[in-house]
Amino acid sequence: MSSIKFSEDHEWVVVEGDIGKVGITNYAQEQLGDVVHVELPEVGRSLSKGDEAAVIDSVKAASEVYAPVDGEITEINESLADDFSKVNSDPQGDGWFFKIKMSDASQLDGLMDQAAYDDFIAGL
Amino acid sequence: MAEQSENLRHTPLYDLNVQLGGRMVPFAGYAMPVQFPDGIIKEHNHARDAAGLFDVSHMGQAILEGSNGHDPAVALETLLANDIQALAPGRTRYSQLLNEQGGIMDDLMVTRRADGPGLFLVVNAACKDADLAHIEKRLDGKASLTRIEDRALLALQGPAAAAVLARFAPDCGALVFLEQRAMEVAGVPCLVGRLGYTGEDGYEISVPEAEAEGLARRLLGEPEVKPIGLGARDSLRLEAGYCLYGHDIDTTTTPVEADLAWSISKRRRQEGGFPGDKIILQQFADGPQRKRIGLQPEGRSPIREGTPLADSSGQEVGIVTSGGFSPSCQGPVAMGYLPPALATPGTEVSAIVRGKAVPCRVVTLPFVPSRTVSTKK
Questions:
Q1: pLDDT tens-digit readout, B231-258
Q2: Contact at CB, A59 and B304, closer than 8 angstroms
Q3: Distance (Å) from the alpha carbon of A77 to chain B's nearest alpha carbon
Q4: Is B62 helix (H, G, I), strand (E, B) or coil?
Q5: pLDDT band at B338 (very low <50, low <70, confident <90, very high)
Q6: Which of A34, A107, A100 is nearest to B44 (CA)?
Q7: Which CATH architecture has domain A3-123?
Q8: Residue A55 with chain B: CB contacts under 8 Å
Q9: Quick one: B34 and B155 in the same domain?
């Protein structure tokens, strides 16, 4: 059983068991424009919800990606290094950033589901 | 956003920019397109490969005429260090308004009009009110300034620009780099200058407001031409090694520090007679304390404005003033300031990005060679 949740900082998390796969939303990539570099966290690093987990460089500016939940990084998307534009072309697929082993699954309750996120960006 | 969208001014091309899918952002009090649907990298490459049309109507246009028998070129030279008297009719010069410390209040293009008396000035949007007030106040009695509020400004830039514009203005090919003439473009009376801020051959076209959208549509109807936003304008000028006012140059930097000494002629260096002349002439004699340089960061991550630069011992010695991803170089490029001892191409320094030292090499500007046209064809 997997489900997708969204943060107000435009990260998405797809949850499978106690692992969350994280990336940025289509809305976020549209706002950023052409992504030219992504700095990903090291595998094994422990993060608290709200910690800076990654940095995205678009042509215009650098933007932070925050950990949407507490946990430990178990995997990063190495294939991004070959083509950072995947973040633009497939942000919720091949453009994923990292997987995090969640230490407190109840934090997911504080995130938005698809309908709530759609409402959220419609109001921006 | 700091600026409320309802308070933003619109250029005569606002509706067209929106219709073309431009993402409008606040810039210097105007709603301007940062990019169109193609995105910054494609727009950038298009301007380098074919031709791009930029709305630069937010910039300030004005005419400076002499009063009471004064020569406006002589009068303007009291406010800047560039050689304005030497300008032949129709010729343009890149110049900088200076404060009493020799700092740059704005950079501007000054043209001796070929189609009338006086000088034609183009100043930055963000500075235009302050610039024009400063000029009026300081030249009171010697020159009078007339703001041009009813004209748009289009920039057509890229290797195909000359061929495209020649279809609408057959005489435009006779212009050399930094030359401006009044001519009809598609039947519209315009002021056409062969210049721009991308490092490419191209033109800036001052066009009556009411005709601006029609002319822009005609130019965009040509197969080589696409609309380009402020995002690509910034990456193009950075690759060309050109200063962005408020970033690479400001009231605390002098033309000598900013590596713009080339724009100050021998006569003016000998005679002085401009604001901050003591400081600037001293810097010519002894060298400045810091110099604007190009930087090639290692790796892929762009180094941004405000990033500190450190020497080999970790001592903070400079700062990045512009930085980003260069589509033409396929990697990060930056400009900044370093002490003269470290300003030599090949020198290794570190940019301190989020606490980490990123190795950078000082390189010669520009990052992409200029392709402006300096000789008659």
A1: 999 999 999 999 999 999 999 999 999 9
A2: no
A3: 16
A4: strand
A5: very high
A6: A34
A7: Beta Barrel (2.40)
A8: 301, 354
A9: yes
